[in-house]
Amino acid sequence: MTSATHSTLFPQVPDTADAVLDGLDPEQREVATALQGPVCVLAGAGTGKTRAITHRIAYGVRAGILQPSSVLAVTFTNRAAGEMRGRLRQLGAGGVQARTFHSAALRQLQYFWPKAVGGNLPRLLERKVQLVAEAAARCGIRLDRNELRDVTGEIEWAKVTQTVPADYPAMVAKSQRDAPRDPAEISQVYAMYEQLKRERTVIDFEDVLLLTVGILQDRHDIADHVRRQYQHFVVDEYQDVSPLQQRLLDLWLGDRDSLCVVGDAGQTIYSFTGATPDHLLGFRTRHPGATVVKLVRDYRSTPQVVHLANGLLAQATGRAAEHRLDLVSQRERGPEPAFVEYADEPAEAEGTARRIRDLIAAGVPAGEIAVLYRVNAQSEVYEQALADAGVPYQLRGAERFFERPEVREAGIALRGAARAGGNDSLLDDAEGLPAEVRAVLSTKGWRSEPPAGSGAVRDRWESLAALVRLAEDFERAKPGATLSDLVAELDERAAAQHAPTVQGVTLASLHSAKGLEWDAVFLVGLTEGMMPITYAKTAEQVEEERRLLYVGVTRARHHLALSWSLSRSPGGRPGRRPTRFLNGLRPGSAGPGGRSAAGTAAGGGGVERPVVARRKPRGPARCRVCGKTLTDAGEMKLMRCDDCPSDMDEALYERLHDWRAVRAREIGQPAYCVFTDKTLMAIAEAVPGSEGDLAGISGVGARKLGRFGAAVLDICAGGDGSEGSAEADGEM
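The structure corresponding to this sequence follows.
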């Protein structure tokens, strides 16, 4: 036996059933030992729910109460199912089936299809978009690529809510759902899609559940077979179960009650896909004798983060709010959450990047930091700010801004219009750069008003709207700029953000952050209209937005910052308001009862209220050549207008550029993580002769000064940058 066997990679399997219970807190132990009858575990964020239910299964198996092959644990993602199987193996319960609803149903369908129907199971349609497109064409309905994605999503929603095509319009009206097209048209496409599937003998993923339900309902002998095989069920993330999944679970169970469900109504954020917390909230009504255990000991987050999370849900309304869990942190005290107000969006992005750079300099790994926003279109300004700050980043759940199809298409259209110049009829009535961009992008789906509802069409509009805003900002910073100038700026930004993916700060939407956690989390863009999002109209939709923010807050282990900006662009009218969800929680704001949060302490737990982190007022940055006020981040780095004369030492710039390329290869990071081009230009213009001079240049922080400063000063003095390299290498 090697020493590695005792490492965390190869944990020792518990010797006995009782040893499986070691290390569990009292509530987790109660879950693990409650093996009879229905059990409902209400588990808050960070409370160790996966630990509790895997130890429950393992304890039952090791104690001889449960047979491994008779247990079916279901969850919602392959990643979660894989994690559960891994933990069960480590606990000595490797024979237990842990699957997603779809994979469990597909396995049963493949096994029983020849007996129930005859022949081979129809081919599984991996992607339904192409068939939906054909169905729309047969109906004479034209859908662009984004509408196609949205209509496909509507068909999926209809099927998991067990809504047939004819009933779809009425169901949309009843649920107050924002349909991406006329519901009657979607109903037509839905019906034709189902017809095409029958003609071609194919099934989709929703059919896997529907057909399994149908067979179990119609063939009692097959249902009995399944029930003899699986006698004990565990369902994770039960708040996300759809009506169709609940129907399948009921058929698996039959008249038995050997069921354990785990969930948190406060984390229901996928109702647009058909998920509903009703099954979790109504569990005790359906199972009056159920054992109910609450897990509220939070092992993830500091008391300060937990206090804010509890405060968010304390103001919630509706049925889910009646079952909210008050978490109790088990960690040492940490820093107060920072509430930061910025003048505009670029300032918010740059300020966030600076704070992240400071955290990294203080020893927090970049991979343990996340920036979370409401919609993916918000990522571009943060991609740019982090690149300018020399901070590596990675996107989760979305393409980089300039890699998105609609952004690439828009870039091609703008480039074509720039080449055509005055010969493009699109630009005949457009005066000024922003008007020209709006005219060009109107051919790609941009309109002055956003489309109703969410989905791919809205995402596309948000991306195009971000380009329009960028054009407005560019024209404000460079009066008289042409379409060609803007295209060159877009190309430069795209090039800076197409660096190889490295271990870095995570940029992600709040939805895609579910199930993850980081040491430091920055929740950005928290203004009315974005949080809650404008298309959240009903009280329940607004409450789901509150829960989405709650999920964001509870991703943070130690550091948490929440920020918003008063206007979109520099110099804009400061008409924005911070999200209503922070009323009474952020300093200076009044809650529903009219009490201000500023300077007050929480009752009971004695945890102090978060302290605001305010930006220090500063004067405008002015060009050192002409004295004009600077607004562009790149110009502010150089402290001069781009079109003002440069006194840059070209030879020095080239030497710095070559040194940077070599250094980036040595440390295995993109070149901009050493210094950005603008910073190199600023150094070549200033030609610093001391550490103090170099530290005064924007883009050269304390960390980079210590790491690269000696080499840069050596190059500025005429050397080759070798001086200080050994010392810098020693810091790696």
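Residues 1-10, 498-502, 598-619, 726-732 have pLDDT under 50 and may be disordered.
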